[in-house]
Amino acid sequence: MDYPTIADCVGNTPLVRLQRLQGETSNTILLKLEGNNPAGSVKDRPALSMIQHAEARGRIKPGDTLIEATSGNTGIALAMAAAIKGYRMVLIMPESATDERKAAMAAYGAELILVTAEEGMEGARDLALKMQAEGRGLVLDQFANHDNPRAHFEGTGPEIWRQTNGDITHFVSSMGTTGTIMGCGRYLKQQNPAVQIIGLRPTEGSSIPGIRRWPTAYLPSIFAAEEVDRTLDISQREAEEMTRKLARVEGIFCGVSSGGAVAGALRVSAEVENATIVAIICDRGDRYLSSGLFGNWFGN
After folding, report:
1. What is residue 69's three-state secondary structure?
2. Which residues form a coiled coil (predicted)?
3. Is 35 annotated as a binding residue?
């Protein structure tokens, strides 16, 4: 028997129905549980895609050093993929990332370089490119690498279309690197141009892991604004409150960007009827426990 490897377990995640938070409505709100991927997030898909396609093009080979700037989930996923494939993985991230994220990356054997919270992801991205220029490794660059949205065009989008029997009317996704919304959006629009693609970004001053409001100079080059039908601003408070509600009312334990996506889906639901709305649950809540999001159980 040809048994699967851990890489074969990426994708084909469940799509579940929201039961109580939506209230009385003619709409169906569905959540794609990407935390069920082996390394725990939607980023497992592009991480594996970027490495596999780079190998196929002959850009990298096992034993090479890979470098990536990350706020967390992509780093964990790349650390897993590098362990599967036999690469040295160097990850650069803001020191403000939760301890769970740092520990998970280290557990997979990745080397961590921390930049200050003030330097943030922009500083991490700059340092990654500087290290590449110095010959210290290859940057996969999730922000400009078209194998990122490709993973969702070939995987996540078709899964959603199949799981909804083509009934999806609205797709809601947080926007960070924007790979998920670009890849899924393109696939869903090819199947039915009437499907509405809705992106989430944080309000000014909000800090939501996985959702970014990029300065123009750092806007991911894989992003095409014209392919997003509508953009909603989500506050940190709204996203965090919805994240806690999802755990306590629906039994769905997820991260803050997922809470933001569901808050956005509920806003859309309040405006339409007889719709099938799909939101992406990007990751699991266990990598946010030390942040105090679900209560101050640590260090007491």
Report:
1. strand
2. 225-252
3. no
